[in-house]
Design brief:
This protein has about 450 residues and is mainly alpha-helical. The protein is built from 22 helices and 2 strands. A hairpin with a 2-residue loop joins strand 1 and strand 2.
Length: about 450
């Protein structure tokens, strides 16, 4: 599904504030009320969008498999273009790829959140396909398979874990997922429809996986979704099964399906992956990054160095000076555009453990600067440092203070009845907590009893 122009706010609250208020262990009543207002507004917008779902639920599985075939055929065509020597379709350079990882992070860091509210209803057979999907998003409590932990690790490895500068629009998809998860009892048909759309295999996932690997970025998080979101036995097939299992036997079936369709259309709102990739502008991102740096480093430089008659502190004192600052660095000979960045004095100040400004810029920020300086200069293909891990190894068993959370949880559970134990486990499997040590333990215990 192609994205439309995203909403940046739905009421008096910025979307990011709503996102953060819902990404709490127990969102308060005000946060849940705000979530309901947010979803209601999103659904009004979604109702105006096209929907390609078949009219009959009985045709849904065939539709999903036909969509998957079209995707894989388009991917095969893409691979042929690459074999003929055509350039990457998505990522122009390494900075572009890292920009993508940051920009989609608010969505990836709540992966599966829309399904959380189904856990209290775990005995209901009709919900089992959806609950099983949620448990797999959580890696069934195994840290090396927990999707949020995997993405956090990916961000950290590539110096992208600071998310300053992202707009409200970047938080729309994640906020929709959190709102559906916390309000599942009120929006079950919409949740089923949203899940149906989100779990289909998109072409951009296949291409992103391929091109990230080319650039030396570990694509495991994305590759994992290629395999589990399949239309044969994976999340896409379960999404169809969940729709069919929850169709009302008594009541207005068409009204239920209309709500499913609205939830499905929610996938078109916000900044999707292809929109994020297309929006990248290297110089704009570099200037935005320098502006953020300026706000925290405007008075820390000495006054002995002047550019165009101004000290560095004076250049950093006011907003809007960064284009002129870059121009002054070039005029002074500190930056040489379209040449090997290692030949620029300013780059030498920021790169390497002995650089005078070592640690001032994150890995992502240095990459923006590097690729902007390089410009049209054509080096050998630059790739990110290889940091792939052996995913069969869970690491040493936690001991001492490192195991205090899990010991405390096990002690708490011993004194509770079975129903209370389940309630406590579910509390720790929220989008805010499931990737913590206690949350992982809770997920393992819940999965063992559920499966």
């Amino acid at each position: 599904m192609s994205p439309i122009s995203p909403l940046t706010a739905v009421d008096c609250h910025p979307v990011r504030d709503t996102y953060e208020s819902l990404l709490q262990a127990q969102p308060d009543a005000a946060a849940l009320a705000r979530a309901g207002d947010f979803l209601d507004t999103q659904l009004v917008v979604a109702e105006m969008l096209p929907c390609d779902l078949p009219d009959s639920p009985e045709h849904m599985l065939a539709w999903g498999r036909a969509e998957a075939r079209r995707t894989t055929e388009a991917y095969a065509s893409y691979l042929q273009t690459r074999k003929r020597g055509e350039p990457r379709r998505y990522f122009s350079n390494l900075a572009h790829a890292l920009y993508f990882l940051r920009a989609v992070a608010p969505t990836k860091l709540v992966d599966g959140a829309w399904l959380y509210g189904l856990l209290p209803h775990w005995p209901e057979v009709r919900l089992q396909p959806l609950i099983q999907t949620y448990l797999e998003e959580l890696g069934n409590g195994v840290a090396a398979q927990n999707h949020v932990l995997l993405y956090r690790q990916l961000l950290a490895e590539n110096g992208c874990d600071e998310l300053g500068g992202l707009s409200d629009a970047h938080y729309i998809q994640g906020t929709q997922q959190l709102a559906l998860g916390h309000l599942a009892e009120r929006y079950l048909p919409e949740l089923i429809g949203y899940n149906l759309g989100y779990e289909q295999l998109p072409l951009h996932l296949l291409i992103s996986t391929y091109e990230l690997r080319e650039l030396g970025i570990d694509p495991y998080y994305f590759q994992l979704h290629v395999t589990i979101d399949n239309a044969s036995c994976g999340h896409a097939q379960r999404a169809v099964q969940a729709l069919q299992d929850n169709l009302p036997v008594v009541g207005d079936r068409q009204a239920f399906l209309r709500r499913v369709n609205q939830g499905y259309r929610l996938n078109q709102l916000g900044l999707g992956s292809t929109r994020v990739i297309a929006d990248f502008d290297l110089e704009r991102e570099l200037l935005a990054m320098l502006e953020r740096k300026r706000q925290v480093a405007g008075t820390v430089h000495s006054d002995h160095c002047r550019l165009d008659g101004r000290t560095i502190n004076q250049w950093l004192a006011e907003s809007g000076n960064m284009p002129g600052f870059l121009a002054a660095l070039q005029a002074r000979g500190w930056l040489h555009r379209h040449q090997d960045p290692s030949e620029s004095r300013f780059w030498q100040l920021v790169d390497g453990p002995r650089a005078a400004m070592f640690g001032v810029f994150s890995g992502y920020e240095r990459q923006l600067l590097h690729d902007w300086i390089a410009g049209d200069w054509q080096p050998a293909e630059q790739v990110a440092p290889q940091r792939r891990r052996n995913r069969d190894e869970e690491g040493p068993e936690p001991v001492g203070d490192f195991a205090s959370e899990t010991r405390t949880l096990l002690a708490q559970l011993e004194g509770l009845a079975v129903a209370e134990q389940n309630q406590r486990l579910i509390q720790l499997m929220t989008p805010a907590l499931h990737h913590s040590p206690a949350g992982l333990m809770a997920t393992r215990l819940f999965s063992a009893s559920y499966c």
